[in-house]
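Page 42, continued from yesterday. The earlier attempt failed because a stray header line got pasted into the input along with the sequence. Redoing it now with the clean sequence only.
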Amino acid sequence: MDITDSIQPLIFQAEQDGLVQRTFRRLDSDRQQAVINAILAEAAISGPDQIRIQAVAERAGVAVGSLYQYFSDREHLLDFAVWLCSRAWEAMFSQYIPLLAEIPLRDGLRAYIQGGLELNETERGVVQFMGRAAYQGGQGRTQAAVDSIAQIMLSVTRQMLEQARLRGEIREGLDMEATTRSVNAFLIALGDGQLFPYLNQYYRLTGEDMTFDRVLDAAIDLIVHGLE
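This time it went through. Structure tokens are written below.
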């Protein structure tokens, strides 16, 4: 997740929110980026709520003691990790929302689902963390992260459907907000059914005689024809 273009505003906001110390904001940008990259890399492996301080320090090339000068304690580092992952996902989705919304609905739906599955390959720890928090009930920092990502995903679906309506792909007279929430839930179930095997076991989406591409084609047909 690349957030280098917006790193300084993020760090300033994190300091205002009490997540990082002033010493971190005053670091040179290369050192800041090294620490942030180390946090994201460790979060991708372990999940933001299980970050190992020693591993972050080794990845960043700094002493453990230095990290405690940047973050007042481990809890603040964990808070910053969850907050940073949420902001990074927001930046990523914000980048792709216009692209998904401007192409035909069928193509946008497919790209959205496939992009989510590809994200699991590069950010598995973060995806698994989000899944645990969403389905097992997160609290505090984890619930805040889930709420943020959930709102972004709903926004993606809303904009895809709204642009499709403006292009004439969706019939007039639909309750667009209710439709958006229904389609959003359907898309989440499709994607999460592949990201989390225990859900696929319950949903029975795929199996030895049923590929995900086949299920995805049928699901997109169901959504598109239902809205035409």
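Notes: The mean pLDDT is 86.
Reminder to self: strip header lines before submitting.
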